[in-house]
Amino acid sequence: MRKRVFGSIFLTALITLLLTVSLLLIAVHSGLSHDMRTRLANECSYIAAAIGGDDWQELGRIGSIYADRITLVGTDGAVLYDNEGDVTSMENHAARPEIAEALARGVGESSRLSDTLSEQTYYYALRLDGGMVLRVASTADSALGALSTASPWIVLVILLALLVAALLASWLTHVFLEPIVTLDLHAPLKNDAYDELSPLLHRMDKQNRKIASQLDELKRRQAEFDDVTARMDEGLVLFSAGGDILFANRAVCALFPEDSAAGGYMTLCRDPEYIRVVEEALGGKSAHGRMEKDGRVYSLSASSVAEGGQGHAAVLFVVDITERDQAERQRQEFTANVSHELKTPLTSIMGYAEIMENGIVKAEDIAPFAGKIRAEARRLLTLIEDIIRLSQLDEGGDPAPFEPVELAALCGTVRDRLQHKAAEHQVTLRVAGAPAEVSGQRRTLEQMVFNLADNAIAYNKPGGSVLLETGTQDGAPFVRVSDTGIGIAPADQQRVFERFYRVDKSHSKMTGGTGLGLSIVKHGAALHHAEIALQSTPGEGTTITLRFTQG
Length: 551
Ligand code: ATP
Ligand code: MG
Hints:
Blueprint: H1 2-51, H2 56-65, E1 69-73, E2 79-82, H3 97-105, E3 107-113, E4 119-127, E5 133-141, H4 143-181, H5 198-231, E6 235-239, E7 245-248, H6 250-255, H7 272-282, E8 287-293, E9 296-306, E10 312-320, H8 322-357, H9 366-394, E11 403-406, H10 407-424, E12 428-433, E13 437-440, H11 442-458, E14 465-473, E15 476-483, H12 490-493, H13 505-511, H14 517-527, E16 530-537, E17 541-548
Parallel strand pairs: 12-14
Antiparallel strand pairs: 1-2, 1-5, 3-4, 4-5, 6-7, 6-10, 8-9, 9-10, 11-13, 14-15, 15-17, 16-17
Adenosine-5'-triphosphate binds near residues 459, 483 and 487.
C-alpha cells in the first residue's frame, strides 16, 4: 500500500511537471515568434520609409549596418538587392510565399524551418510604391532549437523537481498512511482516523465483540468440560485420528500414573486388549474390551468419531468394574451353591422316602426314618429361610422399622434359645456386661447375635465356654461373642464372611451348617452401620465384636 500511494503521488507530480514544462515552452516560444514578427513588420516599414521608393544608396547603407537580412525583389520576382548574398546567383523569388503574397496583397509573411529544424527564419515582405517588394528576414532558434540549447538546464531542473517530488511523495505517503498504520485494532472505535474508515472500524468493533463473546463461551464450555471430566470416576481419553492422545482426564492419569498421557496411544498402556480396542476405534469401529491391572478389572469401551475424510478420532471410556465383576461372580457361585445345598437334603429325603415306600423298613424303624426326613426337611427350611433373609438384606434390607433395642436383653433371649444346644455340646453359655441400646431391627439384630453364638457353640470343644458380652466403648455400643473353641486360621478369617464358605466342610456338615450364618451377620452389620472385628487363634478360641458406630 505504501508503495502504491507513493507511486501514485510521484506519478502525478511527474506528469504535472512535464505538462507544465511543455506548456511553458510552447507559450514562451509562441510569444517570442509573435514579438519577432511584429519587430520585422515595424523594421520593414521603417526601411521602406527610409529608402522612399528607390534610394539605392540609402538601402545599401542600411543593409550594411543592419543585423538582419534585407532583400529587394523586383516586380517579376528577380532579386535586386540582398545585404547577405550575391544577387546574381540568387534564383527568382516570385514563388516564395511571403513575396507572392506581398505582390498580390501588399504585405506577406511566412516562416521556414532550417533543414536541421533547429532554426526558424521569419520573413516579412512589403510591396513598395513602385511595385517592388522589400523583404526583411530574421533567424531565431526554433522551439526544438531553444529546447536543445536549454536542455542541460531543463534536465537539471527536472531532476531537481523530481527529487523534490520524490521527497514530497514520501512525506505525504507517511502522513496519509500514519493514521491507518497506527490503528489500534483491539479498540477500533477509539481510533481518531479518517471518516471513510469509520464503517470499517465499526464493523471491526462488532466482530471483535462477537469473537470475544464466542471466546468466553468456548472458555466456559472448556471449564465445564474440564470440571466434569475431572470429577468423573471413569477414565476418559480422546485420541486424534493419528492416534495421539489429545486429552486424558484425572481418573486416567491416576490409573496409569507411571505411564505418560501424552504422545501416541501406545505410551499410555501396553495391554493387548487396550491396544486392540483403541486401534479398532481408530479404524472406524466401536469396540469393547476388558483389562486387568494391579488386581482390578476395567471395562474399556471406545467409540469412533469420523473426522470428515481425515480418518477417525476415538473416545475411550475406562470404567473400574472390579466390584461389579466380583458381585457377578459371587451371584453365579451363589446360584451354583444354592442348587447344590438344596440338592443334598432333598436327595436324602428322596432316599429315605423310597426305602419306606418299598416297604423294606421294619415297622419299628419307621419313626427314626421319619425323624431323619424331618431333620433334613428342617435343614432345607433353615437354608431357604437363610437365603430369603440374605436376599432381603442384599436388596436394600428388610422393610422392618428401626427401633431401640437393648443389647443385654437381646443376648439374654439368645442365650435362652441356645441353652439346650450348649448343653448338648457340653459348653457353658454366659451373658455379661452392661446394658447398651442401639437403634435397629430387632429381628435382624437377634439373628446376628444368634448366628455368632451358634457358631461359638458349634465350633467349640466339649467343656468349653461361650461369653456374650455387651457394653459401650468410646461412646459406641457393642456386642462381643467369645468362645474357647477351635479357632479360625488367619487365612480363613476374612473368607468366613463369604456366602457358603465353610472352613472344614465335613465338620460343618456334621454341625448342619451351610456357611450362610456369618454372611447374614455381615449384611446385618452393614445395615446397622456396625463394624465387625474378628480375633481368633486356632486351638484357643475366637472373639467376634460388633461395634455400632452410629447409635
Ligand atoms: P450356618 O449357615 O448354619 O451358620 P456355618 O456355621 O458353617 O453354617 P457360618 O456361620 O457362616 O457358616 O460360618 C462359616 C464358617 O466359619 C464355619 O463353617 C466355620 O468353619 C467357621 N467359623 C465360624 N464361627 C467360628 C467360630 N466361632 N470358631 C471357629 N470357626 C468358626
Ligand atoms: Mg454358623
